[in-house]
Amino acid sequence: RWQKIFMIPLWSKMAVFWNKMFLTIIVLLIVLFLDAVREVKKYSAIHVNEKAANVNTNAFDHIQMKLFRSQRNLYLSGFSLFLWLVLRRTVTLLTQLAKGMASHAALETQVNDATEAAKKYMAENERLQE
């Protein structure tokens, strides 16, 4: 039943579109990840000594807020990139498994037909020998 549904020509046209969208999303996630790495390095490099922190606490808090946001963006983009790649690999493996199961079922029916034909010919051969 599922094979009939997925053999509709519309799916093959959509597959090309979604492969392009997948690559676009991967590139976007990589760019976001690299930007987050750059931001984390930028705000981690800023060290405010205690004297300057006591003078202007708002500046220190502002830098810490920006560091927190850049770290948050790094974790979100990195984890999203990782999960997106895992999802893609899972879909690829499921597709290969479905193709393998379909070819296995076709080979099984072909073997059963060949076995039945061989039994029929053997029975006919025995009958002719008698």
Explain what the structure shows.
There is one protein chain. This protein has helices spanning 2-6, 9-44, 50-55, 57-129. By secondary structure, it is mainly alpha-helical. Helix 2 runs antiparallel to helix 4 (57-129). It is rod-shaped, with a radius of gyration of 31 Å. It starts with a helix and ends with a helix.
- Going by helix content, strand content and strand pairing, the class is mainly alpha
Q: In which range does the helix fraction lie?
A: over 70%
Q: Regions with pLDDT < 50 over 5+ consecutive residues?
A: none
What is the helix tally?
4
Morphology call: rod-shaped
User: In angstroms, what is the radius of gyration?
Assistant: 31 Å
User: Secondary-structure element order, as H and E?
Assistant: HHHH
Whole-number mean pLDDT: 85
**Alpha-carbon distance between the termini?**
48 Å
Portion of residues in beta strands equals under 5%
The description of the largest β-sheet is:
none
Number of strands: 0
